[in-house]
Amino acid sequence: MQTVNRIDPLRDAVGALRREGPLALVPTMGALHEGHLTLVREARRRAAHVAVSIFVNPRQFGAGEDLAAYPRRLAEDSALLAAEGVALLWAPTAEVMYPAGYATNIAVTGVSDGLCGAARPGHFDGVATVVCKLFNQVRPDLALFGEKDWQQLAVIRRMARDLDLVRPHVDRIIGVPTVREADGLAMSSRNAYLTPAERAAAAALPRAMQAAIARIAAGTPVDAALAELVAALHAGGFAAVDYAALCDAGTLAPLAERGTGPARLLVAARIGRARLIDNMAA
Ligand code: PAF
Asked: Domain spans of the chain?
């Protein structure tokens, strides 16, 4: 595996890889877990070569968020990726990504307004901006993202469609189902913030979500099922629930009742130092 952290060698490396066949990109912020490795394995199935980026993007963290504390483990991550057969690790510094004088921002309206967009103002501008840059830097044929960040995936697809991105074309932005621990908790780099007691309590999140989905399917009004979900999280040790919403799976518009189209239950809740997000088909 080749590791590069400057633009010129990156262009040479991706040029050589793309001559051998389709190149897939898996963008990450590092602190890799089984969820990321699942993305890499899926990428390897779909492309001749896989590039992974590791960049803890300051522009997607708000004031007072966990930018400084975000786990950074480049050496361990690099060993994991090499063992998975990744061809290229793109690990730019903040100065390479945002050199002095950097002044451009990508804002995707609509799909990024509610949910995490409302709870974390500016977050999705930071995500759209860095992902657009990563796409332009690596020029992959396809890119893979975890469905755990369902709203992020919707924002990235909207951005790719609106900006007529060629590489990767919007149809080649692949969402990969969430990987879960044995007790149902979605894998996340932020699970590392949890104490053992908080980690055990955090399994209340997927449990409460499944219960809410079952209640809605059985005819409980959506607002009542969501209120029960929030109460279950508080009872289970969560300090705050940023949102719990049933939404149209594509537009993320909130649904007051379960219609016939694809719907998604999305939740963000805080326990200990961690803000956990999850989503499920509903
Ligand atoms: O999902 C993430 O890890 C990040 O938001 C991403 C897509 C790598 C952009 O920084």
From this structure: 2-176, 189-281
Alpha-helix residue ranges (DSSP H) falling in 84-203? 94-97, 115-119, 123-138, 150-162, 196-202
The pTM for the full model equals: 0.97
Below-50 pLDDT ranges, the chain? none
Provide, rounded to the nearest whole percent, the portion of the chain with pLDDT above 90: 99
The residues facing 242 across adjacent strands are none
Fold annotation for 2-176: Rossmann fold (3.40.50)
**188 CB within 6 A, ligand 1:** no
Mutate to test the pocket of ligand 1, among 25, 149, 157, 188 (most ligand atoms within 8 A of CB): 149
Helix (H, G, I), strand (E, B) or coil at 267: strand
Instruction: Tell the CATH topology of 189-281.
Output: Pantoate--beta-alanine Ligase; Chain: A,domain 2 (3.30.1300)
